[in-house]
TrEMBL record:
It is a peripheral membrane protein. GO terms for cellular component: plasma membrane. The lineage of its organism: Bacteria, Pseudomonadati, Pseudomonadota, Alphaproteobacteria, Acetobacterales. GO terms for biological process: peptide transport; transmembrane transport. This is Oligopeptide/dipeptide ABC transporter ATP-binding protein. NCBIfam families: oligo_HPY. Residues 7-256 form the ABC transporter domain. Keywords: ATP-binding, Nucleotide-binding, Transport. It comes from Muricoccus pecuniae. InterPro entries: AAA+_ATPase (IPR003593), ABC_transp_ATP-bind (IPR050319), ABC_transporter-like_ATP-bd (IPR003439), ABC_transporter-like_CS (IPR017871), Oligopep_ABC_C (IPR013563), P-loop_NTPase (IPR027417).
């Protein structure tokens, strides 16, 4: 991994106990099961995968909302999370997690000014005047007039509430922002405005994003690189253009086949996703995609690691065969 990575995860795991009668532990749910990632400063790394594959758990474990079960998180070269390792206070503001709708957390009985001041009072030693100055700068950066600060949440639109929610986070001067499904529930025109705002803010404040999304079209337009997760692991990672043009892992090919509207090579019906992913408390031995994979073979009884050529890695014994199979686009 390059030395300059802003964020690194090494063998990161987060398991949850599965409990039965009388709260007795009856199993282990492996939500995150060994993730190695390196994110460069200024980069936008997309995280995609079916519901329940561990995307939010990855974001929350990086943030310190969940303690890792194993492995570690390093931020700017410093270990910030590991089992039993207390999170350095000084880093809290530098890493921020944005839920689907950051505006929803605004207190309805507070003016927007009070909501904006609150995180600065908690996390910084700035004087009232310094806080006000910073708030005015950020409010302008998210495209709202300063006069809005005297309003209450119900007096502004949902889109403006979302901007205020983001502004509260940006006030703290984060370097890495984890955006978890930031455009879900938005109609297309609002979505385009929100994405434009993310791009502008990234440029202006030198932000790095971890961009978690179900929407492959949005990921393709926003991200420099994309990591595909399956049952708690990264099964493919590549520069965005390459991943969408030449996917290697059978699971990635199936995901793309299920979203044909994003263009790129449509893949054959061989790669249609069958059924639901297994329960993460019962992950199969060997390749975890084996039960759903059209290319499964005896070699797949052993779990594959990510196999890289340049920046493109796929955790599949047979990715070369998978990548060579004709796409619907090229065979028609
Ligand atoms: N606090 C928790 N306690 C127990 N299990 C959890 C907890 N948080 C998540 N899980 C389980 O971990 C697995 C991964 O969940 P996670 O929320 O990370 O998935 P996701 O990829 O973000 O899904 P979605 O796309 O639906 O948001 C799921 O099986 C989920 O039920
Ligand atoms: S390792 Fe085998 S089962 Fe797993 S994705 Fe590759 S071909 Fe399919
Ligand atoms: Mg999630």
């Amino acid at each position: 991994m390059p030395d300059a990575a802003l964020l690194e995860t090494r063998g990161l795991k987060r398991h949850f106990a599965v409990r039965g009668l009388l709260n007795r532990r009856i199993g282990t749910l492996r939500a995150l099961d060994g993730v190695d990632l390196a994110v460069e400063a200024g980069e936008v790394l997309g995280i995609v995968g079916e519901s329940g594959c561990g995307k939010s758990t990855l974001g929350k474990t990086i943030m310190g909302i969940h303690q890792p079960t194993e492995g570690e998180v390093r931020f700017a070269g410093v270990r910030v999370a590991a089992p039993g390792h207390p999170r350095p206070k000084s880093l809290r503001a530098r890493l921020q997690y944005v839920y689907q709708d950051p505006g929803a957390s605004l207190d309805p009985s507070w003016t927007l000014r009070r909501s904006m001041h609150e995180p600065l009072v908690i996390h910084t030693d700035l004087s009232r005047g310094q806080r006000e100055e910073r708030i005015r700068e950020i409010i302008a950066a998210v495209g709202l007039p300063v006069t809005h600060l005297d309003l209450y949440p119900h007096e502004i639109s949902g889109g403006q509430q979302r901007r205020i929610g983001l502004a509260r986070i940006l006030c703290l001067g984060p370097r890495l922002v984890i955006l978890d499904e930031p455009t879900s529930g938005l109609d297309v025109s609002v979505q385009a405005a929100v994405l434009a705002l993310f791009r502008e803010l990234r440029e202006r404040f030198g932000l790095t994003y971890l961009f978690i999304s179900h929407d492959l079209a949005v990921v393709r337009s926003m991200c420099d690189r994309v990591a595909v997760m399956y049952l708690g692991r990264v099964v493919e990672i590549a520069p965005a253009a390459e991943l969408f043009a030449a996917p290697r892992h059978p699971y990635t090919r199936a995901l793309l086949a299920a979203a044909p509207r994003i263009g790129g090579p449509r893949v054959t019906e061989n790669f249609t996703l069958q059924g639901e992913p297994p329960d993460p408390s019962e992950i199969p031995a060997g390749c975890r995609f084996r039960g759903r994979c059209p290319l499964a073979a005896p070699v797949c009884a052993e779990e594959p690691a990510l196999d890289f050529t340049g920046p493109h890695g796929a955790a599949c014994w047979r990715w070369r065969e998978a990548a060579r199979l004709p796409s619907a686009a090229s065979s028609s």
